[in-house]
């Protein structure tokens, strides 16, 4: 029996204790909202923005605003699908129904790999951040973090939600605090930066596009990478207490989240510190604190990025277990992965993923060279594949709903399908930019190799389990 076959209800009347897939609906509105907020705030903002600022200057603000609009289109497309049928398999399940069984197979395994790779990098990063305070072996910190997060994910989905709530709270508090401090400097003029802080810094040093529009376009891949994981809220659909109410509210917060935490924060920081003073590899938040003469800033940012890394790894533990179970339920993965604990958590799926994350940490410890970085670069293109599938599925679902073949969603994406087509074209442009950028091109080299592995695996699946390979939509 597949996950899509057992989930018969479409009116949002599922019991609060369990979903049709066997999961417990334990994630409340407070937790879903913070998961949605935290998914859009990560190391891409706290660390990666420094490199992007040095490449594009103040025009990076516009890049984040435009990309944020595209992300909103993607999330509204996802919301339309979730209200049609809220299931934990989410993107893979919709790809299976609206594109075909192979698309579901590719999407499920690719999203699983995305989070495994992300988990590897984030738990390693978290271990590195610990050395700022204590001289302890990196492998030991990585081991402790992985075991703690693994245990939390097995205890209950509610504990996962609580961890994400507080991880997200730290990130949100840090950004709001920075915005308020910068606003105080601009209006009152206190701190070492008070004499030079002015909104005119956004255009005084070479203009708003100091390195040209082309350089701004080249930062779009960095910008889109920062937004990866915003779609995680879709994976929580099968475990939300009231998905028909909670998920739309969480998705509708996307515009103000991006406006405040990305656009707002960058406007404030670049007004206080001229863009030319930012360097690649240095957090813009650390640079801003140093400019203000606040030495404690580096320690604060280190704690925040540690939290962001642990949050990402925690999300990886959660989503990989669910994605593997969805594949297994649909005959596209080992049946043993369908088992749940009494608390409704996918034991084996989470265990396999956590074990692979630990292997990755060991590999990174042994061979911290370019080969590992190449594997990490695959995260961007694999994450965008999920977005592409969301948009394609929404376009096909809307067409069927308009023909009366499927019920209309209660949460229609405004402007769709044109907004979905626009988002697809935008993602295509970002992929072209990645092909042009020598440093990011390796991501595109990895994709065909992964596609070949999946293609061969699917042929093996067809020979051994024709029913699983042929399943494309709900019965």
UniProtKB/TrEMBL annotation:
<feature type="domain" description="Amino acid permease/ SLC12A">
    <location>
        <begin position="32"/>
        <end position="464"/>
    </location>
</feature>
<keyword id="KW-0813">Transport</keyword>
<dbReference type="Pfam" id="PF00324">
    <property type="entry name" value="AA_permease"/>
</dbReference>
<feature type="transmembrane region" description="Helical">
    <location>
        <begin position="59"/>
        <end position="78"/>
    </location>
</feature>
<feature type="transmembrane region" description="Helical">
    <location>
        <begin position="293"/>
        <end position="313"/>
    </location>
</feature>
<comment type="similarity">
    <text>Belongs to the amino acid-polyamine-organocation (APC) superfamily. Amino acid transporter (AAT) (TC 2.A.3.1) family.</text>
</comment>
<dbReference type="GO" id="GO:0006865">
    <property type="term" value="P:amino acid transport"/>
</dbReference>
<feature type="transmembrane region" description="Helical">
    <location>
        <begin position="347"/>
        <end position="365"/>
    </location>
</feature>
<keyword id="KW-1003">Cell membrane</keyword>
<keyword id="KW-0472">Membrane</keyword>
<keyword id="KW-0029">Amino-acid transport</keyword>
<feature type="transmembrane region" description="Helical">
    <location>
        <begin position="418"/>
        <end position="436"/>
    </location>
</feature>
<feature type="transmembrane region" description="Helical">
    <location>
        <begin position="34"/>
        <end position="53"/>
    </location>
</feature>
<protein>
    <submittedName>
        <fullName>Alanine glycine permease</fullName>
    </submittedName>
</protein>
<keyword id="KW-0812">Transmembrane</keyword>
<feature type="transmembrane region" description="Helical">
    <location>
        <begin position="442"/>
        <end position="461"/>
    </location>
</feature>
<feature type="region of interest" description="Disordered">
    <location>
        <begin position="1"/>
        <end position="21"/>
    </location>
</feature>
<dbReference type="GO" id="GO:0055085">
    <property type="term" value="P:transmembrane transport"/>
</dbReference>
<keyword id="KW-1133">Transmembrane helix</keyword>
<feature type="transmembrane region" description="Helical">
    <location>
        <begin position="138"/>
        <end position="160"/>
    </location>
</feature>
<dbReference type="InterPro" id="IPR004841">
    <property type="entry name" value="AA-permease/SLC12A_dom"/>
</dbReference>
<dbReference type="GO" id="GO:0005886">
    <property type="term" value="C:plasma membrane"/>
</dbReference>
<feature type="transmembrane region" description="Helical">
    <location>
        <begin position="371"/>
        <end position="397"/>
    </location>
</feature>
<feature type="transmembrane region" description="Helical">
    <location>
        <begin position="172"/>
        <end position="193"/>
    </location>
</feature>
<feature type="transmembrane region" description="Helical">
    <location>
        <begin position="254"/>
        <end position="273"/>
    </location>
</feature>
<dbReference type="InterPro" id="IPR004840">
    <property type="entry name" value="Amino_acid_permease_CS"/>
</dbReference>
<feature type="transmembrane region" description="Helical">
    <location>
        <begin position="213"/>
        <end position="233"/>
    </location>
</feature>
<feature type="transmembrane region" description="Helical">
    <location>
        <begin position="98"/>
        <end position="118"/>
    </location>
</feature>
């Amino acid at each position: 029996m597949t996950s899509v076959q057992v989930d018969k209800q479409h009116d949002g009347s599922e019991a609060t204790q369990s979903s049709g897939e066997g999961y417990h609906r334990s994630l409340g509105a407070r937790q879903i909202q913070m998961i949605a907020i935290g998914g859009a705030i990560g190391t891409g903002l706290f660390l990666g923005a420094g490199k992007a600022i040095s490449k594009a200057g103040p025009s990076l603000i516009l890049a984040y605003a435009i990309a944020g609009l595209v992300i909103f289109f993607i999330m509204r497309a996802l919301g339309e699908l979730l209200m049609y049928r809220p299931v934990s398999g989410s993107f893979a399940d919709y790809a299976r129904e609206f594109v075909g069984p192979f698309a579901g197979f590719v999407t499920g395994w690719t999203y699983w790999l995305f989070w495994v790779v992300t988990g590897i990098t984030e738990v390693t990063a978290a271990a590195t951040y610990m050395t700022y305070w204590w001289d302890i072996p990196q492998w030991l910190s990585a081991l402790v973090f992985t075991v703690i997060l693994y245990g939390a994910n097995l205890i209950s989905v509610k504990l996962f939600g609580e961890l994400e709530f507080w991880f997200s709270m730290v990130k949100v508090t840090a950004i709001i605090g920075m915005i308020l401090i910068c606003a105080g400097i601009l209006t009152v003029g206190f701190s070492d930066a008070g004499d030079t802080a002015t909104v005119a810094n956004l255009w005084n040093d070479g203009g708003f596009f100091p390195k040209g529009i082309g350089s701004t376009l080249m930062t779009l891949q960095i910008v889109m990478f920062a937004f990866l994981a915003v779609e995680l809220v879709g994976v929580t659909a099968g475990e939300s207490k009231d998905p028909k109410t909670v998920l739309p509210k969480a998705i509708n917060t996307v515009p103000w989240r991006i406006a405040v935490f990305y656009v707002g924060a960058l406007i404030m920081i670049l007004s206080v510190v001229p863009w030319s003073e930012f360097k690649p590899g240095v957090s813009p938040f650390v640079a801003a604190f140093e400019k203000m003469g606040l030495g404690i800033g580096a320690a604060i940012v280190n704690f925040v990025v540690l939290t962001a890394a642990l949050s990402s790894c925690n999300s990886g533990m959660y989503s990989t277990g669910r994605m593997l179970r969805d594949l297994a339920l649909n005959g596209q993965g080992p049946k043993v992965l369908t088992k749940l604990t009494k608390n409704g958590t996918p034991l084996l799926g989470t265990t396999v993923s956590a074990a692979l994350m630990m292997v990755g940490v060991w590999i990174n410890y042994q061979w911290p060279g370019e080969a590992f970085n190449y594997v990490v670069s695959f995260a961007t293109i694999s994450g965008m594949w999920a977005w592409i599938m969301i948009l394609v599925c929404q376009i096909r679902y809307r067409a069927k709903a308009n023909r009366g073949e499927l019920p209309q969603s209660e949460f229609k994406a405004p402007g769709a399908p044109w907004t979905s087509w626009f988002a697809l074209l935008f993602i295509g442009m970002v992929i072209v930019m990645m092909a042009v950028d020598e440093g990011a091109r390796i991501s595109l080299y990895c994709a065909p190799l992964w596609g070949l592995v999946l293609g061969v695996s699917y042929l093996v699946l067809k020979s051994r389990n024709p029913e699983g390979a042929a399943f494309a939509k709900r019965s």
